[in-house]
Each structure stands twice: as structure tokens, then as C-alpha cells.
Amino acid sequence: MSTPEDAERLSPLAQRWPRASKFLLSGCAATVAELATFPLDLTKTRLQIQGEAALARLGDGATESAPYRGMVRTALGIVQEEGFLKLWQGVTPAIYRHIVYSGGRMVTYEHLREVVFGKSEDKHYPLWKSVIGGMMAGVVGQFLANPTDLVKVQMQMEGKRKLEGKPLRFRGVHHAFAKILAEGGIRGLWAGWVPNIQRAALVNMGDLTTYDTVKHYLVLNTPLEDNIMTHGLSSLCSGLVASILGTPADVIKSRIMNQPRDKQGRGLLYKSSTDCLIQAVQGEGFLSLYKGFLPSWLRMQSDWITQDHPMRPQHSVF
Questions:
Q1: Distance of alpha carbon 84 from its chain centroid, rounded?
Q2: In angstroms, rounded to a whole number, what is the distance separating the alpha carbons of residues 87 and 79?
Q3: Distance between CA 227 and CA 229 in Å, rounded?
Q4: CA 66, 70, 72, 74 torsion-angle sign
Q5: What would the pLDDT profile of 132-162 be if each residue is shown by its tens digit?
Q6: Separation of alpha carbons 44 and 49, rounded Å
Q7: Residue 98 and residue 34 in contact, taking contact as beta carbons nearer than 8 Å
Q8: Is the dihedral of CA 67, 68, 70, 76 positive or negative?
Q9: What is the pLDDT of residues 204-237, one digit of tens each?
Q10: H helix runs in 259-307, sequence order
């Protein structure tokens, strides 16, 4: 006769450790999505740093003389000038970042949902709790993942540095972590963390509020039912709003992370994220804050249409 302990031991792993299984499956899905869409992320980073006016103060004329390229020309230029596989330069720290960010965000969100906020009396989870919890979870996850994001951005720009005749900064991923740590200490690994967590909060807020609002409207005011078509249309709108809200902070983050630094690890171009914002607007115009918007939106769209966002509420109370 089997005991409860035997039954538990023989049950599937997903039932015995549901959170661990969910995290593992999410990590695998995120890795596949990262590999498939990473060229868009690389293109986005190159566009965000293209034409950086602050470089003129250092006497770097390479950026000013280079003609402006859009998304397609930038991607084709990388293939022609650096090689096809360079479209995945920096993918290893990007995968590290996905694992840390997704894990930190998921654990934080579930803790907030079950312990801090709790469900309402009718067992539903209100939209405002999802938004606040999603923003807080995104901030925590992004803060934890900042070192991997920093290395990813800098490695994505190595091919450009080589074309400009500048020395390469790193021999590989682990050398990048070690060099940044040696030059700037622990604090150096969190360069750019302020605009990074701002972007995470804005993206999660835009996604959650827009997705739920659009889905609610479509189900109540159109012949559409709660199915994959409704999910796709809601994701399309939520990705657009999230990109509009998050792209300026993403541009500032990329520029601060990629800026040259002195021997003490201090930035030579920008004193803070606010200084970077002011210099970008004054030197390049307001629309410079939306450089890389199209590949950013396309990448966000592909991720959110193919994956079920864990923070999107299934039912909302407006």
C-alpha cells in the first residue's frame, strides 16, 4: 500500500515543485526568444548610440562624419562590414540578463501578489494591484540584472569600435565582468541602473494597463471573444505604448553604459542620467530619445505575442 510520501515522490516534477518548474520553463522560452530576436536588440543599441552629440567634447569625429542609418541599413551594415554572426555579438550576457531578470521579477511579483497585496474578496486580482506589483517586480528584477545588461551593451558596441579603429575593450564575457569590476568596483557594475529601472517600471506599467484595457474593450464592444486574436491585438497595442514610454529611458541607459570612463570607472561624457537627457535633447533634438524605437517595438512585440505575460491579470476589476 502506497503512502502519501510515496505518492508525492512519484508525482510529476511540475506538481512537486510548481514554481521551480515554471521558472525553468520560462527560462528556456526566454532563451529561445532571446536567440531569435537578438539581432533586433543589437540593431536597437547601435541606433540609440548613433550620432551621439556628447562625443564631440572628446574630439571624436567618427560619429559626426558617419551617415545616419535606419534599422534596415544598420542591420545590413553589420552583416556587410562585420559578418553575419556579429548580429549575435553580446548574446551570452543577454541570456544571463534574461535569466536573472525573469527570475527576480517572477519571484518578487508572486511574493507581492500572495503575501503583500493578496486577492480581493471575490478571488480576483484587481488591475491596480497588477500594475503596482508589476512595476515593483520589474524594478527589482532589472536592478539585479544591471551588471549583465551593462556587459551586453558594451559588447554590442565592440564591432563598431573596431571599424572606427579603436581598441577592443574585452576578450569575452567573463573578461568584461572582471575588467569592469577591477576598474570601477562593485559600483561600476551598476552603471546606468537609474534609467534602467525607470525603463523597467515604465514598460511594465504601459504593458499591463494597455493590455488589460484594450482586451476589456474588445471583449465588451466587438464580436471578438477572449481568444488568441484578442490576445494578439491587445499585445500589439500594449507593446506600442510600452515602447513609447520606455524608449527614452532605454536610450539614456545605453549611452551611460557605453560611455568611455577614466581609470576610476567614472564616466567622461555624462555626470548623470539627467545630464545625458539634457545633452541628447540639446545636441540632437527631442526625437533622439526615440532612436531605436522600431526594432525595440518589434522585439517587444514578438516576445509578448508568443509568450503569456505572467503579470497580466486574467480578470480585472476596474
A1: 23
A2: 7
A3: 5
A4: positive
A5: 888 999 999 999 999 999 999 999 999 988 8
A6: 9
A7: yes
A8: positive
A9: 999 888 988 899 899 988 888 888 889 889 889 9
A10: 273-284, 293-306
